[in-house]
Write a structure and sequence with these properties.
alpha+beta, UDP-n-acetylglucosamine1-carboxyvinyl-transferase, Chain, 26 strands, four-stranded mixed β-sheet
Length: 479
Amino acid sequence: MGILGEAGPRFRLPGDDFEARDTVSGPPPAWAAPTASGPLAARLSLPGSKSLTNRELVLASLADGESILRAPLHSRDTTLMIAALRELGIAIDELEGTDTGYGPDLRITPAELGGGVSIDCGLAGTLMRFLPPLASLGLGPITFDGDEGARRRPMRTTIESLRALGVEVGDDARGTLPFTVYGMGRVAGGELAIDASASSQFVSGLLLSAARFENGLTLRHTGETLPSLPHIAMTIDVLARRGVAVENPEPGVWVVPAGPIAGRVVDIEPDLSNAAPFLVAAVVAGGSVTIAGWPAETTQVGDDLRELLTRFGAETTLTDGSLRVDGGTGVAFGRSMPGVHLDLSTGGELAPALVALAALADSPSRITGIGHLRGHETDRLAALAAELNALGGAVTELPDGLAIDPRPLTADPDRPWQSYEDHRMATAGAIIGLAVPGLLVDDIATTSKTLPQFTELWRTLLGDAGSGGIPISGTGATA
């Protein structure tokens, strides 16, 4: 049996030891973020996309036949998704001999969906928004819960959507986790209007299961804004590749016909959003960073980095399936870098890395279109402002973003950079640490949510061009 056997995961995510140790010896040790000592010259390969892996796991579970996912991501978010689908009766097996370093390929065999189970969502938005519509096709009660932070994430749209489709959902009027979906084995479908202003995942979650509704689904978004549209485009694309043609007759309206979902063999692309801190590092430290396996065409929003980083003075080149970013002499070593005005309404998940970079610029920046980040793993706008200001920065929250007025940043040995249990806050701290000596990150292990190998890859990135990166106390922070 491989790393995701029926007895539970045998591989260790970076946070596993810390979680077990919390009840014995307190929080995990702080991590000393390496400071760049020279230009970079790194070439990296990254694990698979979390967004694609979890979408394909859901569709494979609803398909008419077997599917195989090649090079899927193995992280906390995907491990929880796999465990949840198994609880519902789906067979998910590893294929021996397929592990190239980031985990084996997976075979998914659909089955009748059961009930009478509890689903641990962790802090995974894809799980808590994608699985309740699928669970409504099962038989029996299915309870969803997660981490303490997950209980603060908005879920009312999912809950009310299912009720509007005739599915009973019990949440004691909270509009958040925990809640229970009482599946009846069928959903009529039809027409549905929702406000998905808080997250595009509300739309994607419904679209992924809609072909299995008896009458399909005509879904209309009623809110004034809809963030992260590329993620909906990704959902439509993976559905199309399985034979489900989603029509988009006008902005904010999607029509999914009832019909079969095909099993297929899927090659999962590397996670381009997880490439952000590594590519930004080239701009901070100078030199170059190359990410292998970069697709020529993709629906991943991380591909926007090719253009966005040029706004910060970097050069980007995509050739032969690799993306190279050249940062010149590097901001940390005196290269001038003006501030920017960015609208990241389509790519908010890139904001923490780009805000960290903007904090090192020579002039003010405004990054907008990211008000919805207040409802992510943490309130990312408040968190970024608090952590940069604690270092001496001048970051102000806007209604829809952040204003960054660069100031000299200085680490406080008595106050680590707080990750807020948010993987992108942790990696933002690592970026700042490249230019700010002595910076500590309180819980780098939270990167296990989507990239368990982060610290190992960060060390590889720096090679001989950095120092630090070890736990201040204890062991395991860089495992």
